[in-house]
Amino acid sequence: MPGTREWVTTDLAIADSTIAGWGPREARETVDLSGAALTPGFVDAHMHLESTKLWVDEFVGAVLPHGTTAVAADPHEIANVFGVPGVVALAQAASKLPFTFGICAPSCVPASHFESPGAELGSLELAELLDEHDAIGIAEFMDFPGVTSGNPEVLAKIATAGHKRVDGHAPGLSGRQLDAYLAAGVESDHECTELEEAEEKRRKGMWIFIREGSASRNLAALIGTVLLHGTDRVALCTDDREPETLLHSGHANDCVRLAVAAGARVEDALVMVKSNPAESHHFDHLGWLAPAYQADVLCFDNLSSFEPARVFQAGKLVAINGAIMPGAVPTAGPPQWMRSSVHLETLPGPSAFDLVPPLGGRAHVIGIESRSLTTRDLVLDVTDPASEVARIAVVERHRRTGRIGLGYAHGFGLTHGAIASTVAHDAHNCMAVGAIDSSGPPDMAVAVARLAEIGGGQVAVRDGHVLAEVRLPIGGLMSDRSIKEVSEEMRVLADAALNGLGVTIDAPFMQLSFLGLSVLPELRITDKGLVDVMKFALTDVAAT
Amino acid sequence: MPGTREWVTTDLAIADSTIAGWGPREARETVDLSGAALTPGFVDAHMHLESTKLWVDEFVGAVLPHGTTAVAADPHEIANVFGVPGVVALAQAASKLPFTFGICAPSCVPASHFESPGAELGSLELAELLDEHDAIGIAEFMDFPGVTSGNPEVLAKIATAGHKRVDGHAPGLSGRQLDAYLAAGVESDHECTELEEAEEKRRKGMWIFIREGSASRNLAALIGTVLLHGTDRVALCTDDREPETLLHSGHANDCVRLAVAAGARVEDALVMVKSNPAESHHFDHLGWLAPAYQADVLCFDNLSSFEPARVFQAGKLVAINGAIMPGAVPTAGPPQWMRSSVHLETLPGPSAFDLVPPLGGRAHVIGIESRSLTTRDLVLDVTDPASEVARIAVVERHRRTGRIGLGYAHGFGLTHGAIASTVAHDAHNCMAVGAIDSSGPPDMAVAVARLAEIGGGQVAVRDGHVLAEVRLPIGGLMSDRSIKEVSEEMRVLADAALNGLGVTIDAPFMQLSFLGLSVLPELRITDKGLVDVMKFALTDVAAT
Asked: Which helix (H) or strand (E) holds A380?
């Protein structure tokens, strides 16, 4: 499909990795694709590799068959754990793969000064990634208060971008605050949830990346802006997709399918995963089936499933009918040091998790709900079993400080044992939730000890025994196994939490992983203690 | 008008030179524009300053009132005369003006090895302009045979562009030749004359700049591609507009008016002179009335004439109702050395122009026709008065070589005296046409002597006297006078040629200025002699 959004019947001539032209040519090799609809490879406008829990070679092997040949990735979880060397290691591994893995320089590491990541990235580190390691731009600028208030350090980070893209993250921002955010130089947003929000942002020149992740799904709410005003400065993105979603729904092609189902013209939906995201991220060689462009070509037998029958990347056939060609995706593992990221001076014992309730029992409790990442600042009597609270802890795991933050959470339903995770945005310290009764602290200690032993991951423990676990030895964030194994481990772990520990909430590990993110409302916890996000201050557990 | 192509009612907040946001603000100054339609300043996607015969300050003063606030200019005439220093001098003058004068690095100086310009530009010179003097890209790549044949020097020039735009010039190029031209890295074209030609180029990802110049007017033929397929990668440009056209028809706003008259939606027509050309040339700060963009704002009382009632450039009011605000456009003259460009060791006398007819009289004659820049290779008996030929000469004027090329032309109608011009694409040597009778050579000598005396320009001479002239002392290409004076001088000169010398063809000086361009079919003349463009070789005047 060409730039005029027609379908044209033609031969396509490819020379090495590049499209040489249209029409018949004398060729060393010809492939008969008669009847197939050809499109450029799909480009995911914004995603986090870490959310897939896969290392980059496994990720590429998982999404190429779905037609994704390029992404703009924000490796800010890796950056929180390993800093610039982690991002560079990812870039080096990705460079060996048949894929355009564009890396954005993470803008907000740490997310706030309440968090204790393994590394911090200032404007010097961003400049290093942009100038020396070919970062394609600056990743989602989550610290929008810092931008709109004109914080000099924040503005210095934006200035490092030069002519490269500065991606934004501005949920609900509008009016003067949005104007200030844009005037500072931020250019895109993938956090719109309401049509009017997307409309205002587009009117003001912002690129809108419509997100269809595993949890956050905004396409149905936002497609109206495309139906009303066309596709200018709109692209589709996956943001956070888990292995199971990749396996069962696909990747960028799933976004296209949903856009068409929601009423978009096929051609317009395709523009939002080809030329538009390519243009947005200055992938000047991608997004068109035209001379001089890289020969990333998808061949569809039909356009209803949007599952390509063949995928060519840089002129080479890499996937047929959903399966990678043997040898097409080489192994490109992480360096050994990325497998060592859980650093504890001593393993904390049960007593380290045994928070003494405040006098009278009334405490600030993190209130969570299914299908929402917003927590509420509840005040409950934590000594009253009817309050149904659990213990929560954050064990600093990067710098051997021994610091542990303790508090209470409500909503997990967990009544026995403990769960724990080294995936814990954004600092990715070791978070644990344990039963409020006396079984909690020892099982929390066992869970944390197990994560230290396996180099990170997610685990469910009861009565001192590990019920199930997902091993994530790469930075405590990513597996070194196949997507199928990771997906199955995650399913078994979720079952164990639900059936073995009394957990009632959906996606307990996903919920757990966000309870440390000290910039989301209302109440969070880090290794430094309870954070009242609305006051942007540490706060006591005891309610006054 | 915002990116969604709606019209929105709002206040616009401007801080210094930048749009700060939408909606009411506490302001130092407010301007009541109620009822006005606001658009971004217009961007001309491709033009040659030299065609306007105005120096840049006068040009800016002429087009700002029409709403043009930015251009992508190809100064390749100046480059042929002065090389890199001439282009840099233009850039320095332009930098003092309230205007975005984007300069492209001229790609094809000289046009061919048959021409003798004042300077040559290789890839080193292009790199110097791009890297040290902020050239925005590479200007129209006219040497398409050099590109498609893979000439290493030509490809080296393209490679200097890096991520900047490489503009093209590919009249009629299609199929495999077009594919090769694109594959080499050329990205735009402003030479389409047929709808199908534009359609093919757009399908293949090329930016199409639809041209409405003084002579070449392609909008009516090409607007169909916009009506059929929208505005993706389409922009409008003026290419070559003469002073009279600027005065009476306008500039980019005239292109918008014509596009709307031809059936384009107002909003689509506007996109082609604002965000599209800005995007094409990476004017990242132009083309939108959105926060962070430069406050180039046009206020229209109505959208039928597309003559703005007010023009703001970088936040400052620069024009009202077609008139520049006093002091808004400072004088920014050229350096003194640009006024010295006609270099002759000695003035050629009449005998230097007296070509002895070939034995038998039959000669190759340059055949010209009104309203066409293509010449024909005629064979006529130049000793027969019925052949109605004139003498033609090219006097090298850059390097004091004393070289003069002599030949014959048919079609001017000139029966007495002589005309001469230092505007003579692309090398801009001194061209003269004189009567075939014995009055021709002395009047040609007087005409050339007069141009040497005034530092270049265009002149009509009869019986040893100057009838009329346009003084173009800046490089022999541009005036130092006002647009009204230049336009009036040109009118008087054309009258003198028509009424005093018997000229019958339209626009004789424009025709004359292209007879030395050795890459246009079929027969041309340079200081080295007659050029058979179809054989791409020098050829004898005598017909065999």
From this structure: strand A376-381
pLDDT digits (tens, 9 = 90+) for A167-178: 999 999 999 999
pLDDT average, residue stretch B437-447: 97
Residue B469, preceding peptide bond in cis (omega within 30° of 0): no
Give per-residue pLDDT as tens, B87-143. Answer: 999 999 999 999 999 999 999 999 999 999 999 999 999 999 999 999 999 999 999
Measured between alpha carbons, how far is B488 from B458 in angstroms, rounded to an integer? 13
State the alpha helices, DSSP H only, in A184-303: 195-203, 219-229, 243-248, 252-261, 266-271, 275-280
Among the listed residues A527, A283, A519, A515, the one whose alpha carbon sits nearest the alpha carbon of residue A411: A515
H or E stretch at B142 = none
CB atoms within 10 A of CB B322: 12
| Among B529, B532, B510, B512, CA closest to B521 | B532
Contact assignment for B204 to A20 by CB distance below 8 Å: no
Order of strands across the sheet with B234-237? B188-189, B207-211, B234-237
Out of A2, A203, A232, closest to residue B204 by CB: A2
Instruction: Provide φ and ψ at B157, rounded to 5°.
Output: -60, -45
How many beta-carbon pairs below 8 A join chains A and B? 129
- What one-character-per-residue DSSP string does A456-507 give? SEEEEEETTEEEEEEE-TBTTTBBSS-HHHHHHHHHHHHHHHHHHH---SSS
Q: Is A24:A207 a contact under the CB 8 Å cutoff? A: no
B20 closest CB neighbour out of A3, A179, A229: A179
Q: What is the pLDDT of residues B300-333, one digit of tens each?
A: 998 888 999 999 999 999 999 999 999 999 999 9
Report CB contact under 8 Å: B19, A183. Answer: yes
pLDDT in tens, A279-294: 999 999 999 999 999 9
- CB contacts, 8 Å: A20 with chain B: 179-180, 183
Which of A370, A304, A363 shows the shortest CA–CA distance to A525? A363
CA atoms of B121 and B142, how far apart (whole Å): 14
Cα separation of A64 and A44, whole Å? 12
Dist CA A391 CA A382 (whole Å): 10
Q: How far apart are CA A74 and CA A318, in angstroms?
A: 25
How far is it, in rounded angstroms, from Cα A85 to Cα A76? 12
3-state class percentages of chain A: helix first, strand second, coil last, to nearest 5: 30, 25, 45
Nearest-by-CA chain B residue for A294: B183
Cα(B478)–Cα(A275) distance, integer angstroms: 42
What residues are paired with A409 via a beta bridge? A366, A390
pTM of the predicted structure, to 2 decimals: 0.94
Helix B56-63 vs helix B483-501: crossing angle, to nearest 10: 100
Q: What is the ipTM of this complex?
A: 0.92
| pLDDT, mean of residues A491-509 | 96
Q: Long-range contacts made by residues B284-287, C-beta under 8 angstroms, separation at least 24?
A: B284/A163, B286/B40, B286/B41, B286/B43, B286/B69, B286/B70, B286/B100, B287/B40, B287/B43
Contacts of B2 in chain A (CB under 8 A): 202-205
Looking at the DSSP assignment, which residues form a beta bridge with residue A406?
A: A393
Question: Which residues of chain B are at the A interface, by a Cβ-Cβ cutoff of 8 Å?
Answer: 2-6, 8, 13, 15, 18-23, 25, 163, 175-176, 178-185, 199, 202-206, 225, 228-230, 232-233, 282, 284, 288, 290-293
CB atoms A3 and B282 under 8 Å:
no
